[in-house]
């Protein structure tokens, strides 16, 4: 009993002295806090987007991977998270167009303008993409900070990629369609390897072999290839009619007053928005379809981009259809109602990308 009392007395003394020194009982940390915070800075830690093992070896941290994770989490509230990314830097020309778009449309009313726009989009979902997303060491809650956002790298193509399209409006949500059938999509033939000239081969024989190679090469496919190998002909025949039909139904609808409806399309080459003499433009002109000028590299100006399509490898189409059905008009209207404020931001931020938690 005396030994126990003596032990408690010693412990109280040590605790009191540690409080006076503003320290804690126990072994000291092997790495001080300044070293941990230095790992959060690109200037002192150029491998912040690499695995923790690489960062430990590069910065000579005397900790194991598990110990470093514990130190980061408990002491400075940091860790390795999936990196937020943007596709690529917005070009200067598109920034000018985005600023002009903001100035022109920042005062447009929700009812009378934005509710008359039919927003269209074609999305490409790759279930393997989540495994290819890079990670980065950062503080908790700082995902959208500028130095934590990377440039999106090209993702490896996959036969599991799904190609989807749909259109939404303030009063309407169209069905989710798929166009990932390989039979319907444009396939580019793989060119034969160009022959190389042998060391002791005459120029005449090399030209003969070169001519023979050119004859064996597959013919070039005509048409502007873009949007994951989608031509204007394919877009005009399979996808655009559904968009036009939605606008036509709105025109003949008895519940909504007569007005001029607009169709929004991005600047994908298959949409035919960059010229006037193409099959896509002709079909829209025949049906009296007016389009809303949309600047390039602007997914943040399309409310449909704010919707999230999720799914898994198994029964992916069915899951995506269910997820699409769960999106309500209330959510769509909430995103459309943000367009005036987004246009105001464009008019003041020099055309930079607009980022938020949900869009």
- How is the largest sheet built, in terms of strand order? 7-6-3-8-9
Instruction: Give the helix tally.
Output: 11
* CATH architecture annotation of the largest domain: 2-Layer Sandwich
Which strand-content bin applies to the residues? 5-15%
Specify Rg, calculated over alpha carbons.
29 Å
Biased composition (Basic residues): 12-25
GO molecular function: nucleic acid binding
Region (Disordered): 1-25
InterPro entries: RNaseH_sf
Provide an overview of this structure.
GO terms for molecular function: nucleic acid binding. Residues 12-25 have a biased composition (Basic residues). It comes from Bimuria novae-zelandiae CBS 107.79. Residues 1-11 have a biased composition (Basic and acidic residues). This is Tc1-like transposase DDE domain-containing protein. This protein is of the alpha/beta class. It folds into two domains: 2-76, no CATH class; 90-130 and 154-186 and 221-349, Nucleotidyltransferase, domain 5 (2-Layer Sandwich), CATH 3.30.420.10. 36% of the residues lie in helices and 11% in strands. The protein is built from eleven helices and nine strands. The strands form three sheets. A five-stranded mixed β-sheet has the order 7-6-3-8-9, covered by helices on one side. The radius of gyration is 29 Å and the shape is extended.
């Amino acid at each position: 009993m005396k030994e126990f009392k003596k032990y408690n007395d010693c412990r109280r003394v040590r605790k009191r002295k540690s409080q006076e020194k503003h320290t804690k009982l126990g072994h000291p940390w092997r790495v001080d806090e300044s070293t941990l915070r230095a790992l959060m800075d690109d200037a002192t830690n150029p491998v912040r987007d690499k695995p923790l093992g690489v960062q430990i070896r590069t910065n000579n941290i005397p900790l194991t991977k598990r110990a470093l994770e514990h130190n980061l989490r408990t002491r400075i509230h940091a860790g390795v998270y999936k990196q937020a990314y943007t596709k690529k830097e917005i070009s200067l020309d598109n920034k000018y167009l985005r600023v002009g778009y903001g100035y022109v449309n920042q005062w447009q009313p929700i009812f009378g303008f934005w509710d008359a726009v039919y927003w269209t989009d074609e999305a490409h979902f790759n279930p393997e993409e989540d495994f290819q997303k890079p990670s980065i060491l950062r503080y908790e809650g700082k995902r959208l900070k500028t130095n934590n956002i990377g440039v999106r790298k090209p993702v490896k193509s996959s036969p599991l990629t799904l190609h989807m399209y749909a259109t939404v409006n303030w009063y309407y949500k169209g069905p989710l369609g798929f166009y990932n059938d390989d039979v319907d999509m444009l396939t580019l033939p793989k060119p034969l390897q160009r022959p190389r000239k042998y060391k002791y081969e005459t120029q005449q024989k090399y030209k003969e072999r070169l001519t023979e190679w050119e004859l064996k090469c597959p013919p070039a496919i005509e048409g502007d290839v873009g949007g994951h190998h989608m031509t204007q002909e394919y877009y005009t025949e399979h996808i655009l009619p559904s968009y036009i039909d939605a606008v036509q139904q709105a025109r003949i609808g008895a519940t909504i007053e007569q007005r001029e409806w607009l169709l929004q399309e991005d600047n994908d080459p298959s949409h035919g928005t960059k010229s006037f003499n193409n099959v896509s433009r002709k079909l829209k002109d025949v049906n009296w379809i007016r389009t809303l000028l949309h600047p390039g590299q602007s997914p943040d100006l399309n409310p449909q981009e704010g919707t999230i399509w999720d799914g898994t490898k198994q029964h992916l189409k069915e899951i995506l259809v269910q997820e699409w059905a769960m999106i309500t008009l209330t959510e769509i209207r909430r995103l459309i109602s943000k367009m005036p404020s987004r246009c105001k931001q464009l008019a003041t931020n020099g055309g930079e990308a607009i980022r938020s938690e949900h869009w």
